[in-house]
Design a protein that fits this description.
Blueprint (H helix, E strand, L loop, with lengths): L1 H20 L5 E9 L6 E6 L9 H13 L3 E4 L11 H11 L5 E3 L11 H11 L2 E2 L3 E5 L2 E5 L18 H8 L7 E5 L6 H7 L3 E4 L8 E2 L3 E2 L14 E5 L2 E5 L17 E9 L5
Parallel strand pairs: 1-14, 2-3, 3-4, 4-5, 7-8, 8-9, 9-13
Antiparallel strand pairs: 2-14, 6-7, 10-11, 12-13
Helix pairs in contact: 3-4, 5-6
């Protein structure tokens, strides 16, 4: 009996150490998207859910990861800060170091919109040259980039029912231009079907933190809405030919652990699809 207890305690300690240490070893995860609308290949980096975890050595690691690969576009899909505004200056310092790497586009998450100094934060980003998109779009060559800004109402717990339709997306963003490749920055992936029906060729999201803990062959365990084994946890998803890349995020928030779920920057290779195939 004592042996069994010691083994279980040993496993618990190893899991705890893994949960603590994983946060210090971020990775890049690569995805490949093809489209007939693209003539010149592009590399986009997706950053999300930093939650102000970018001080000291960790900030340096992330800056080096981004600078080393020299992407064409930086996409930020929200929750780089925390809702109480703590350590926002570290987020601003981090963004200052990377904004010169590539054109940077940022849509808010549920934490930015609740910050006490939200207006000041937005102005600081705009002064850096970051395109901060609140239910608006900008053109970046042959790509249109849309930023969705959802009120807190749409970030709900699993027992609260919310129906976010294609029509609601269109009311906030207008109609998508079907002849151009469209990227939608949408922090909450829960409404991916509506984003796809609206017409986004590629949706990039975060919010789920990879499900906090990941189990082999199963995936993420729990979402911020307290949904067990969420359908959208991390990775690549498809609806009627439209794609979503869902990042596991870069930092930590309420639960200061990650199990088998290293923080990541998503590297998205967008290339021309051969029309003859």
């Amino acid at each position: 009996m004592l042996t069994v207890i010691m083994i279980l305690l040993g496993i618990a300690v190893l899991l705890l150490l893994d949960g603590i240490l994983e946060n210090h070893f971020p990775i890049t995860k690569e995805y490949h998207i093809q489209s007939e609308k693209i003539k010149e290949d592009k590399t986009a980096f997706l950053l999300t859910d930093l939650h102000a975890c970018c001080r000291g050595r960790k900030k340096d690691i992330y800056v080096q990861m981004i600078q080393r690969q020299n992407p064409d576009i930086l996409l930020i899909a929200g929750d780089m800060t925390v809702k109480n505004g703590n350590h926002t200056e570290s987020v601003t310092a981090f963004l200052k170091e990377i904004v010169s790497v590539a054109p940077t586009f940022y849509a808010p998450g549920n934490h930015e919109i609740r910050m006490p100094e939200y207006e000041v934060y937005q102005q600081n980003l705009k002064q850096m040259g970051i395109k901060y998109l609140k239910n608006e779009a900008v053109s970046c060559g042959e790509v249109d980039i849309y930023g969705l800004d959802l009120p807190e109402y749409w970030y709900h717990k699993v027992w609260q029912k919310r129906e976010f339709s294609k029509e609601k997306v269109e009311k906030l963003l207008g109609s998508v231009k079907k002849d151009k490749f469209s990227i939608l920055l949408a922090h909450n992936p829960e409404y991916f079907k509506s984003y796809a029906k609206w017409g986004a060729d590629l949706t990039v999201s975060g919010h789920i933190h990879g499900g906090i803990m990941r189990l082999p062959w199963i995936g993420g365990v729990i979402s911020p809405s307290l949904r067990l084994f969420p359908k959208y946890d991390s990775g690549e998803f498809e609806e009627n030919g439209k794609k979503m890349i869902l990042s596991r995020g870069m930092g930590l928030h309420h639960i200061k652990l990650r199990f088998f779920n290293r923080p990541e920057i998503s590297v998205i290779k967008i290339t021309c699809q051969d029309k003859s195939k």
